[in-house]
Amino acid sequence: MKTIYVATTNKGKIKEFEQILSGLSIKIESLQDHVANMEDVEETGETFEENAVLKAETYATRHNLPVIADDSGLEINALNGEPGVYSARYAGEEKSDDANIEKVLAKLDEKKADDRSAAFVCVMAYAEPGEEALTTKGKCHGTITNERQGSEGFGYDPIFKPTGYSQTLSELGPSVKNEISHRRMALNDMVNVLTEKVSG
Ligand SMILES: O=c1nc[nH]c2c1ncn2[C@H]1C[C@H](O)[C@@H](COP(=O)(O)OP(=O)(O)OP(=O)(O)O)O1
Ligand SMILES: [Mg+2]
């Protein structure tokens, strides 16, 4: 199968794409490594689907390559689904993981929320130049801890304990995370969709 270019500015995501897809028939390469200057796509959508499609279609057409893009984030029930599509920019445009985590913990403290349930959501979008994108979606349920635990991964991993585990995604590390994550689930479905597309 031809190479698909992973269009993301997030190094943590690229690493997970590589680990999850290694050993599969789908060959990927980072778009950022392949093109001279990959400019960010402004995420103007109101849903993960809209933003994933926007990123995939814009990058595919701009660079004339088949691309896969991921729009993802954390939905916290006690915060009515926040930070949601604003997960990356929750504490400001500089997209700081540390500041975002602080803001989530402060908001949950402020609310004295007993319910700390949450879910990570990931929408994958695959697009070829000038074509409409195909999408798949994955979810990972869990709870928000009271403080940061662990150092691996990225984003909100240090405060997210997946259902059925007593440690955060940061403590569990990539071998466990990449078996159960929202990104893994969305990629599993995307591999099936792309395999059918090629054979059908
Ligand atoms: O597995 C995850 N573990 C921890 N945190 C995560 C995960 N997955 C998404 N997240 C958080 C990070 C970021 O705050 C936001 C994604 O925002 P999102 O716009 O999709 O990605 P991004 O701006 O970092 O890179 P890009 O848009 O170039 O792919 O959700
Ligand atoms: Mg983004």
TrEMBL record:
Task: Please verify whether the record's keywords include Metal-binding.
Answer: yes
General function of this protein: Pyrophosphatase that catalyzes the hydrolysis of nucleoside triphosphates to their monophosphate derivatives, with a high preference for the non-canonical purine nucleotides XTP (xanthosine triphosphate), dITP (deoxyinosine triphosphate) and ITP. Seems to function as a house-cleaning enzyme that removes non-canonical purine nucleotides from the nucleotide pool, thus preventing their incorporation into DNA/RNA and avoiding chromosomal lesions.
State the Gene Ontology terms under molecular function.
Answer: ITP diphosphatase activity
Cite the binding residues for substrate.
8-13, 72, 154-157, 177, 182-183
CDD domains listed in its UniProt record: HAM1 (cd00515)
- Identify the Gene3D superfamilies for this entry: 3.90.950.10
Tell me which residues this entry annotates as catalytic. Answer: 71
What UniProt keywords apply to this chain's record, in alphabetical order? Hydrolase, Magnesium, Metal-binding, Nucleotide metabolism, Nucleotide-binding
What EC number is given for this enzyme?
Answer: 3.6.1.66
Q: What is this protein called?
A: dITP/XTP pyrophosphatase
- Key word S-adenosyl-L-methionine present: no
Question: Per its UniProt record, what InterPro entries does this chain match?
Answer: dITP/XTP_pyrophosphatase (IPR020922), ITPase-like_fam (IPR029001), RdgB/HAM1 (IPR002637)
* Catalytic EC class: hydrolase
Q: Which annotated residues bind Mg(2+)?
A: 42, 71
Q: Which reaction does it catalyse?
A: ITP + H2O = IMP + diphosphate + H(+); XTP + H2O = XMP + diphosphate + H(+); dITP + H2O = dIMP + diphosphate + H(+)
- Quaternary context: Homodimer.
Tell me which family the UniProt entry assigns to this protein.
Belongs to the HAM1 NTPase family.
Give the cofactors, semicolon-separated: Mg(2+)
Highest taxon in the source lineage: Bacteria
The note on cofactor binding and number reads:
Binds 1 Mg(2+) ion per subunit.
